Amino acid sequence: MFRLTKKLLLVFTVIAFTFTFTVGCSAQSNPPQASSGLQEQSPSSEPQPQNEPEQTAPDSQITNPPSSSNQTDSSQALLVSIRELAEKGKVINSDFAAKLTVIEDVEKKWGKPDSVDWVAAAKGNYAVYADHAMVFGFNKGSQIFEVRSFDKQLQNITLSKVKNSFGTPAYTATVGEEDIIGYTAGEEFKILLVFPKATSANPDPALDHYSVLYPQGTVNSMANDPGRQW
User: Fold this and answer.
1) What strands, in cross-sheet order, belong to the sheet with 189-196?
2) 30 found inside a domain
3) 123: phi > 0 → left, psi -120 to 50 → alpha, else beta; which?
4) Residues 14, 213: Cα–Cα separation, whole Å
5) Pick from 114, 99, 92, 68: nearest CA to 210
6) What is the pLDDT along the chain (230 residues), one digit of tens a residue?
7) Domains contained in the chain, number
8) What is the DSSP letter of 51?
9) What is the DSSP letter of 152?
10) Is residue 103 assigned to a domain?
11) Residue 50 burial by CB count (10 A; 0-12/13-18/19+): exposed, middle or buried?
């Protein structure tokens, strides 16, 4: 009886071991499949970055350029005006034209000048109107042949700006502490621009005054005087 029981126990042990070994091998040969809920995310499902709104410059940066730019623009406009008026014998802020006006016309509108002086080198008398920042040169026949302007806005114009706008001057001279450059303006008139003498400390001086000259008005045929060219 004991032998039979022992033999049966041995048989059951072998069967159990065989079953366990078979199940274990089956489990190793069939790895678990990935869960259907863990699918790879498609590129189209990635969140797209939102475009940041473009930054626009404040209105003040568009409508109000730097003051230096404004000054350059105003200087250029003033130079254009000087050139255009000179071709008519006029300076800025004045209706009195050289060649076409006599000194009495000025006196009727502005009254008597502050002073009148004969300037031999300039070939005529010069009437000063300080309140108007103007000087008129006129000949013995009262014809105005030169109109000078000392307008304060001329100080915004430098020597380099004139040359950049008008080009190489047709005339240059140094008289005392002043540098003078000249340009033709049409067929009858000339422009003379007067600057403080350039120095190493001030190589680009500002315009002091300028004039429009009618050279023919300085001719004195009776005295055989050819008059001024500049």
Assistant:
1) 115-119, 124-129, 134-138, 144-149, 209-213, 189-196, 178-185, 171-175
2) no
3) left
4) 135
5) 92
6) 444 444 544 544 444 444 444 444 444 444 444 333 323 333 333 444 444 444 444 433 333 444 555 667 899 999 999 999 999 999 999 999 999 999 999 999 999 999 999 999 999 999 999 999 999 999 999 999 999 999 999 999 999 999 999 999 999 999 999 999 999 999 999 999 999 999 999 999 999 999 999 999 999 989 999 999 99
7) 1
8) P
9) G
10) yes
11) exposed
- pTM of the full predicted structure? 0.70
| Phi (first) and psi of residue 69, to 5 degrees | -65, -40
- The whole-angstrom distance between residue 155's C-alpha and the CA centroid of its chain comes to 18
Structural domain boundaries enclosing 76:
66-218
Give the pair of three-digit tokens for residue 114: 């502050």
The pairing of strands 209-213 and 144-149 is: antiparallel
**Residue 174, φ and ψ in degrees, nearest 5:** -120, 120
In a domain, 171, yes or no: yes
Residue 25 lies in a domain: no
Two tokens, residue 105? 């016309």
